[in-house]
Amino acid sequence: MSRLDRTRTSAHQLRPFFSSQNLLNRADGSAQFDFGESSVMCSVIGPAEVKLRDEKLDKATLEVVVRPLVGLPGIKDKAREQAIRETLEPLVLSGLHPRTGIQIVVQTMKDDGSILATAFNATILALLDAGIPLKSILGAVTCIVDSETNQILLDPTTQELANAKSTHTFVFDNKSSITSSPENKDQEEAVEVATLYSDSTGLFSEEEYFECAQICYKAVQAVHGFIRTAVQKKLEKEQQQIHS
Amino acid sequence: MASITTEEESKLLIVLPGDQLPESGLMEDSSAAHRLTLGPGLAPMDDDSITAVKAGILKHNAVGNRWWVESNQRRYVAAQGESIIGVVTGKSAEHYKVDIGASQPALLGVLAFEGATKRNKPNHNIGDLLYCRVSMANKDMEAELECMNPTTGKADGYGELKGGFVIKISLGLARRLLDPKNLVLRLLGQHIPFEMAVGTNGKVWVNSASAQHTILICNAIRNSEYLNSAECGAMVKSLVEKM
Amino acid sequence: MRDADPSTNEREFLLAALKDGARIDGRKFYDFRTLRLTFGAEYGAVEVQLGNTRVLAKVSCEVIRPYTDKPTEGFLMFNTELSPMASAAFEVGRQTDEEVLVSRLIEKAMRRSRALDTEGLCIVAGEKVWSIRVDIHFLDHDGNLVDAACIAAITALLHFRRPDVTVVGEDVTIHTLEQRNPVPLSIHHIPICTTFAFFNNGERMIVDPTFLEEQVKEGDMTVTLNVHKEVCALSKAGGIPMEIDQILQCTKIAVVKVAEITAQIQAALEADAKKR
């Protein structure tokens, strides 16, 4: 079956990824992440000075600002700010930088659906670029249940979202162990994966929810892999003078 | 997913936050001395595992079984013993307040200079550029600086940087500039005589006979970050030829 | 969080270099930094890079009811809130003086110079008109936000296409992009801002100052012109006093710059149109 954006052939296919790190000159870290024609830019400043009233004695204060592409920030953007902040709070090792502030600004650059998932992925890349200490990385994907076909479509476009019976966004972390020898490969299978964030709207059954979670979990592996490759490429470029 | 290889570090081992290091791999090299020293980018987690907390290259030094992650960032976090370049932003009877690019300004005692006494101490103004050493750094307190070598009490090159220009680069590039074998500096040195001070906080001070030369050196340093050896050579060559 | 002031060394080096005839980034006094325009897949979205300064402009439209005293006039609105992404000195929900100046200048350059034909936005007099909204997002601040924002805004307006409408009596049909080709806005002229910064008691002037140059400058002036050599706006908010001759000289330099930038915008638009 061909998808509404006509570039994809399968319901469980993600749009092409694109990412770029360290593109802003004033921020301490920045990244852009694209799912096809959806694009989000994220900047990170910190650990930096923090306003006295926001100062926490034992840890860094996380501030997330979400800016929409069109119009002034509204309720939806505030909700996204909260979602991103509360998902990141347990992930950031804020105890290492007490009495400082980490400011994250998320700006939609192009909107073609799945913006929240795109924003999560841009944010993690920007945090990695800024060198903020983290417990783990994360990856995010959105899927919908189509109202006509009841089919689960991954990474929906704006057009596909309009036909959604329910929409689900999942964020998973990625703790993995590096095996010391190839024989220990089974250990890798036992990698624990935690759901960091799950948001569902619309009418759906328990069965549908868990199926969506399964499909998104599989898809997030590709996102994690992509993030790893992106970071790897950047590091190799930095190190090429030393190791050549 | 990467795996630790016992062979030579032919390939860079890149880790991301959340990557756990297996205990067996960590102890391999010094099984006799069951000691382990963790450097930046690695931290023990609640479940006793040792996990990377920054994206970077996993490094190991068999002496003392040290493990750390070589990463790059732009924001400075003060660490004891590092040499940095700061700007005086305020002064009181006992301290200068110095902006070192970290989350808070650092304190520099007015007597922390070579031969300074209560009667005779150097006078610095707001806006002055100082090359200092971090004498105390703690996550809960403001960093403290000094402009002398603590063991000898001599200036050792620390102090005010007069004239010249200063640029901000990434901390990773600053560390690479401190390597005596650094390519871009060697290439520049073949064409232009210049003076420089590199702060591990990503500030680089450059001074030369003319403004044009200083500008060229600053640009060459900035450009060198993502170039390989050949490209770096070509870049310096084209800059020098354009002069 | 305020921006840190530059050190005395930076300040003095910059001034000494300017006296010697050099700028820190190797530019000549009257050169703009490299301008890059990138369009999105949608109409009316453009990202402008002027050196390290980065601005995104996005145009959108909706149908609304006009004011009763101007029943045939459409609306043109600008949103120029400074994002903390560009600089930590910009706080959310707190307008800085810089923000007020930037938004006033863009308003003057774009709206009050009547660059856009607002009468052409009328669908049914007194009932329905188009309201065009330009959201300007500042992503990275390395000086001269005004010129970059102005280029972004006008390029996005030129690139934008609104849905076609058919009016039959009282019935208004708005066609989707699939049904009918969308129509461009009617734009009278292309106003371009050129910002000058002054040093050394106003004797030395430069075009397109970087952030460091802005921090050290003694005064500035923005001249808004179009290719027809018409002055659309002129703004000099404080700074050192200037001779009349100097203002004329600035305008003459701006004429050349405006022609260059306009040509670049048009070339970029044509290249993008070919791709579609």
Automatic annotation (TrEMBL), chain A:
PANTHER family on file: EXOSOME COMPLEX COMPONENT, EXOSOME COMPLEX COMPONENT RRP46
Protein origin, superkingdom: Eukaryota
Subcellular location: Nucleus
One Pfam short name: RNase_PH
Keyword hit for rRNA processing: yes
Residue ranges of every copy of the Exoribonuclease phosphorolytic domain listed in the record: 13-133, 140-214
Keyword rRNA processing: yes
InterPro entries, alphabetized: ExoRNase_PH_dom1, ExoRNase_PH_dom2, ExoRNase_PH_dom2_sf, PNPase/RNase_PH_dom_sf, Ribosomal_Su5_D2-typ_SF, RNase_PH
Keywords: Exosome, Nucleus, rRNA processing
Species of origin: Linnemannia gamsii
Family, as annotated: Belongs to the RNase PH family.
Protein name, per record: Exosome component 5
Automatic annotation (TrEMBL), chain B:
Molecular function via GO: RNA binding
Top-level taxon of the source organism: Eukaryota
Domain K Homology, residue spans: 164-212
InterPro entries recorded: Exosome_RNA_bind1/RRP40/RRP4, KH_dom_type_1, KH_dom_type_1_sf, NA-bd_OB-fold, RRP40_KH-I, Rrp40_N_euk, Rrp40_S1
The keyword RNA-binding appears for this protein: yes
Localization, UniProt: Cytoplasm; Nucleus, Nucleolus
This protein's UniProt keywords: Cytoplasm, Exosome, Nucleus, RNA-binding, rRNA processing
One GO term of the biological process aspect: regulation of gene expression
Broad class of where this protein is predominantly found: cytoplasm
Domain Exosome complex exonuclease Rrp40 N-terminal: 36-75
GO CC terms, sorted: cytoplasmic exosome (RNase complex); nuclear exosome (RNase complex); nucleolus
UniProt xrefs under CDD domains: KH-I_Rrp40, S1_Rrp40
Family that this chain belongs to: Belongs to the RRP40 family.
Protein name: Ribosomal RNA-processing protein 40
UniProtKB/TrEMBL annotation, chain C:
Source organism, top-level taxon: Eukaryota
Keywords noted in UniProt: Cytoplasm, Nucleus, RNA-binding
InterPro entries, per the entry: ExoRNase_PH_dom1 (IPR001247), ExoRNase_PH_dom2 (IPR015847), ExoRNase_PH_dom2_sf (IPR036345), Exosome_comp_Rrp42_subfam (IPR050590), PNPase/RNase_PH_dom_sf (IPR027408), Ribosomal_Su5_D2-typ_SF (IPR020568), Rrp45 (IPR033100)
Short name of one Pfam family: RNase_PH
Subcellular location: Cytoplasm; Nucleus
Start and end residues of each Exoribonuclease phosphorolytic domain: 32-163, 189-255
Keyword RNA-binding applies: yes
Nucleus found in the keyword field: yes
UniProt main location, coarse: cytoplasm
Family: Belongs to the RNase PH family.
Protein name: Uncharacterized protein
Highest classification ranks of the organism: Eukaryota, Fungi, Fungi incertae sedis, Mucoromycota, Mortierellomycotina
